Amino acid sequence: MDNPLQGGEVNACRQSQISLLNDIGKIAGLILDTLGFITLLGAQRGSMQSADNQTFKIISSIILVQGGILLYWIITTDNFFNFTGFTTLSNISMLSWGIAALVIFLHVWGAAGISNVREHMFKFNKLKCLALLGALVSGFFEEILFRKILMDYLQEEGFSDFIQIIISGLAFGIAHLVWGGKALSAAVNATFYTFLLGAGLALIYIMSERNVALCIIAHTITTGLIEPGLIKAAVLNKLDYFKERT
Fold it and tell me: Does the N terminus or the C terminus of the chain have fewer Cβ atoms within 10 A?
């Protein structure tokens, strides 16, 4: 005979998931609204401040928004580092580490086609240091959101690993649509390449048996290398369809 408590536990779990998804929607809306406002404001005031200053303000805003939510998660989650898988990193296969290294290489190699990315990749100054902090914050925040929370929910709903990877990549790409500002070409560029990165990170999540720590590491390294150059290129409206605007 089935334990009647099990059904109640399942219902409670599903209610928790629904509530969590509602919170995710609110969080995503807040982030998109904030970044969209900042991007448009920066474009309107481009003649009043340098591209580096605009980039600095955008990265600072990302850190404040995502970092605040991340801090809340850390405080309210029992054993946060166990939750994110850092305590079991040694159990991850060499194949998963290899895939993570390949995803990092391919995305950084593609982004290096943009002159601003190459300029700032190993240029250590105040802006780069801020970008490294932003990479760490967004690495934790976005991987917990787009990989662990979203993909675990999709798994509970019965979606295959392949569909989870596609949906996770699409959600990740659409969330970065805002970097296009008013330029359709830049929006297509940002969405397409972040979709590929998101799908790659989702594949890492599946291959590592759903250990989001490896995704966080790969995301942080990738962002740390390509920023602040990529955001600066968006500020300067240099992002064209799949290449740099000339």
Answer: N
